[in-house]
Specification:
The chain is about 40% helix and about 15% strand. It has about 300 residues and is an alpha+beta fold. The strands form 3 sheets. It has a 4-stranded antiparallel β-sheet with strand order 5-6-7-8. The protein has a two-stranded parallel sheet with strand order 1-2. A two-stranded antiparallel ribbon has the order 3-4. Helix 3 runs antiparallel to helix 4, helix 4 packs across helix 5 and helix 9 packs across helix 11. This is SWIM-type domain-containing protein. GO terms for molecular function: zinc ion binding. Pfam families: SWIM.
Length: about 300
């Protein structure tokens, strides 16, 4: 896909910290991409600028997790009352960091990079090695009965991708992923406390506690904002779907179904010989540069 369309696509979304080098490299290669900032990094920047009280911590993450502009605005109002300078600093962040700003067509609400930390944990002790040594680096994953269990970085990736490759082969058309089923079951339980009123024309009003949320099945949108950003019906939308005796699978984004899953894991990592059995091409071994570690590093 990348070789065919690459940087000409306009639906790439990158999430990272606010390092200038990353910003420059991504914008040069993908000029029409969307940038999200890693919220934990943004919060640490706020702390370094003096905004570090517990009240600001709670309000910042409420604003970051807000799926609609109302919740975001309320959180920012409280941050303004707490410290106007904090709001002025957050306004300088041009990247997307609050969920209500995310593109609904992406169907991903991540504003952190926690999903890659498990891989980073494998490679952290070996980042200064050659590429081949890094990929074959042995990392202790866990301890069972006081005996360390080791895992090759490449083998670890090969095993995880291989398991998903086999699972994708057995999936039927239109089948939901395990992740989507788990989220749907959770939302189903929450929907029991909601009450739906039919407005006509495929529109509904759902009452959840003391708040009302408009639902439009034609646009697959809810007033809370979660359905359109996340791609899986929220508890308000599910209340309407179940009341109308419809199948919730028909209102879940294709990204959470078997077709997308099969495309994601259409390839797997092939097994390979031990490095000692690789052919010798007589090439020079490139050593890392000799550098002097600066003081304080």
């Amino acid at each position: 896909m990348f070789e065919q369309e690459g940087c000409n696509r306009d639906d790439w979304t990158f999430i990272s910290d606010r390092m200038g080098g990353v910003e420059l490299a991504v914008r040069e290669t993908f000029p029409i991409e969307t940038r999200r900032v890693y919220c934990q990094h943004l919060y640490m920047n706020c702390k370094n600028n003096g905004f570090r009280r517990s009240a600001f911590f709670k309000l910042f993450w409420i604003a970051a997790a807000a799926y609609n502009e109302y919740m975001y605005g309320k959180a920012m109002e409280k941050i303004t009352d707490h410290d106007p300078n904090a709001v002025a600093y957050l306004d300088t962040c041009l990247e997307q960091w609050s969920r209500h700003k995310f593109d609904p067509t992406v169907c991903c609400d991540h504003n952190t990079t926690n999903f890659v930390e498990s891989f980073n944990a494998c490679t952290k002790p070996y980042r200064d090695m050659h590429v081949f040594s890094l990929l074959e680096g042995i990392t202790p994953q866990r301890t069972i009965m006081h005996s360390p269990v080791f895992c090759l970085t490449r083998s670890w990736c090969m095993s995880r991708i291989g398991a998903r490759f086999n699972k994708a082969v057995d999936m039927e058309g239109g089948q939901l992923t395990k992740y989507a089923l788990k989220k749907l079951e959770k939302k189903k339980t929450q929907s029991r406390f909601c009450y739906a009123t039919t407005c006509g024309g495929g529109e509904f009003e759902v009452r959840d506690g003391h708040a009302n949320f408009p639902i439009r099945l034609s646009t697959r949108s809810c007033g809370c904002g979660k359905w359109q950003i996340y791609g899986i019906p929220c508890n308000h939308a599910l209340r309407v779907i179940y009341n109308q005796r419809m199948n919730p699978n028909d209102y879940i984004s294709p990204f959470f179904k078997s077709v997308a899953y099969k495309l994601t894991y259409a390839d797997h990592i092939d097994p390979m010989l031990d490095p000692t059995q690789w052919p010798d091409f007589g090439l020079l071994i490139i050593q890392p540069p000799i550098i002097k570690r600066p003081a304080g590093r």
